[in-house]
Amino acid sequence: xxxxxxxxxxxxxxxxxxxxxxxxxxxxxASDESADSAEVAEAAPTIALLDACKIRMTQPIAHExxxxxxxxxxxxxxxxxxxxxxxxxxxxxxQKSAHEMGAVIPLDLxxxxxxxxxxEVKFDITAFDSSMTDVPLGPATYKIAPKxxxxxxxxxxxxxxxxxxxxSMFAATSGTLTLERFDANGIKGSFVxxxxxxLMGDRPxxxxxxxxMPCRKGLLQSGCxxxxxxxxx
Length: 233
Fold this sequence. Notes:
The protein is α+β, with helices and mostly antiparallel strands.
């Protein structure tokens, strides 16, 4: 009987020791990083770039560009710089503020290639010295004139701010801007620009092109009605 009791006591002690020992954890399976990356890439929204400007230059070089418009509200610097803005696309409060601050821009069109495209081209056709009445919504043809400085350009005249071709700059002396469509959704038309090189040379400039872009909803353009600006950021 004593021996049996000792046996049970020894068995109980052994079980107690085993119960106190920590359990060995099973190693977690290694994550498949490539699979995770593929899932993230598949889940990320795809933003379709839209055609913006088609540019054909004959002087100082012969070259053609097709630029894009990015519907995302923010892009890295230098990416898809083509765009258009207008005080016409602001709501009533934004238009009132623009008038009070003297910051009315009836139309500003920018055509530009991305940083990885060579030769690089970028220019803007704008009417800073005109009112919304001088450049109303609707089809029309406007004169592109040299920049009048320090005086202002005539109402309804457009200028080319600075025309950039790689490291060279050009000034526009004449041309036309034709608007086939200018409404609450965006703009479509064509342009002809003539000019000459400045600062580092005197080469002539001749450029023709077309453009079609929606307006972008957001700050100062809350009245834009284009659905193209509704794509994910």
